[in-house]
Fold each of these.
Amino acid sequence: MVTTDTISIKVQKTATPRIKELDYNHITFGKLFSDHMFLADYANGAWGDAQILPYGPILMSPATSALHYGQAIFEGMKAYKNDKGEVSLFRPLDNHKRINISAERMAMPTIPEEVFMEGLKQLVALDKDWVPDTDGASLYIRPFIVGTDEFIGVKPSDNYRFYIITSPAGKYYNEPVKVLVETNYIRAVEGGVGYVKASGNYGRSLFPTKLAQQRGYQQIIWTDARNHRYLEESGTMNLMIVIDDVLITPPIGDTILAGITRDSVLTLARDWKMKVQERKISIDEVIDAHKRGTLEEAFGTGTAATIAHISTIGFEGKDYVLPQVSGRIFSNRVSQELENIRKGKSEDKHNWMYKVG
Ligand code: COI
């Protein structure tokens, strides 16, 4: 049992550690899970029963409400290890704020900071050997909350479970991505849930993405639901475009997730006195810039990939090929600087790193 001023966590350590399964030189994304997981339950209007258990399957009723009506939200975040072997989380309090924004929109209970943070800290400290220190690698952390009522009437669940699982992560994309501008299907609409990390947002993206992949693209650029002219997100990431040395990204709103990597990239760009515009950007403007030779960079930002360079943008049957990634000044610099801050090699001016243990 670990007890702090505000929360007690029952700890049951695994009798069969699996750390030997982790090959630090060949880490993929999202397939291997660390030895332990954190759980807390919400019942009678309060969170309790916090515990750390060996990672493993959970028994659940087939009538569990989240399986039917999608009261399911999640976060994505990462822990890093520096040269001294110290482990830090990247901006965890921002993930805590965001999961509560998601909870509110999905009629779910918010999670107190001490439950979220203590669960996170104790779990990552216990499994610190699972945090890789190799270049570009980290421990991906997946906190999530699901409705657990055994009831198939449609209403907000009365009971919920908060989980945290973790998984060593290497690169999400090995190559720059070819993206297709989607002008038929939509991801999000004003008044909808596009701005939160609701599981259904990801489920609904899979079919259009599959169609794009059948045409030779890896990802989609989503466009606005009304006219399919304004660019929104790129796959599961925020989208950034550099035209004529100006960094442009669609503004946060109902249809765009307030990405923590997005905010970090914009903050560094502003530190470096780069011109930043958070505004609507149309596909016509991007194609026009491509024609004029001023489209310098395009990339996605997200926790999983950090920076995913876009090599080609497909639109209405034509492919627009972007400049070589090696010559892209801003996205390469920002990608390296984020890695340096996370691994303790650059000064953490904005206090983004939160030490664990
Ligand atoms: C992220 O990069 O932040 C994501 O949400 C991607 C994840 C769904 C794999």
Amino acid sequence: MTQHTVVLIAGDGIGPEVTQAVQRILEAAKAPVVWEEHPAGLAALERDLDVLPESTIEAIRHYGIALKGPCTTPVGKGFSSVNVQLRKQLDLYAAVRPVRTLPGVETRFEDVDLVIIRENTEGLYSGVENEVTPGVVMSMKVASDRGCRRIAHWAFRYATQRRREKITVFHKANIMKLTDGLFIRMAAEEHQREYPNIGYQEAIIDAGCMRLVQDPSQFDVLLLENLYGDVVSDLCAGLVGGLGVVPGANIGETQAVFEAVHGSAPDIAGKGVANPLALLMSAVMMLNYLADNRNDDACRSCAVKIRDAYDQALTDGCKTGDLRGELGTNEFADAVIERLS
Ligand code: NAI
């Protein structure tokens, strides 16, 4: 059986707790992966390394795949986000975040099944900020033909491959006529040029958010620029049980980094109560990615086995505190391991 070397970045805050739980589950499921651990974020600074060491980036370039825990970013000061740097340096331009109702997790809506596709390298996240004059600061929103077109193309190709019916672009092109205007123009062009069979809609983001919380079944795949994708991901997480249950992938042409949507959750770090499911689901996406890109059936069957096991654990009422359950991080991991067939 082929063993795939995966770069593991444990991150900080709840990162090490949830990563260890996920590693344990993958090991019990006999996933064909070998971990190579690399530091980033606070964990790297504590070892007197750069916040994003070149060796970590090089390892991901070399092996093409990583599983990453969350990394804290200081608010309003300090170093710029490791997560953003990583996505930009590796040109991981497509963030994919499936949001689905899980068995045994009661929420306001049943059968939510959305996919968020977020442009990961441009927009206000370009990090170009300056002080124009004392008391006046500015952040620049960047959009390029190439960046907007490639994410639109990626989203339509994804929708086609996954047999999804419709893409809705959330935007604010009524106000940001150039940047968001370009984003929707490129999406509409890609739709007409290559993917006319997929449904296509545009929605101004404020009204779109209202419609999302009223009735998410109106939507299928959502395509958004960077900042909107960030915000709407957390909104959608709230529709299915919160940040503990939404996975993600950052995908480029030759590399992919899998990580949960949530952050380092400093309020619960070190307490052993964090939900490892979002990272576990990200690991399942990683196994499916390996199956698709390296033609490895063992990865696919392992992904199915793990998904069945966590669905069964949830159905049996095994849940962490964020889902109003009583299990801690490790107990939930044990419950999943017990259900691996
Ligand atoms: P957060 O996602 O860390 O936490 C928001 C709330 O959700 C908190 O109450 C937290 O306890 C809860 N939560 C999050 N994940 C959970 C889990 N697995 N199980 C149970 N509860 C969970 O967002 P916040 O507080 O805004 O950010 C904290 C730090 O994380 C910041 O420094 C931020 O920059 C960073 N961050 C990093 C990300 C990444 O590494 N990709 C993504 C988002 C935020």
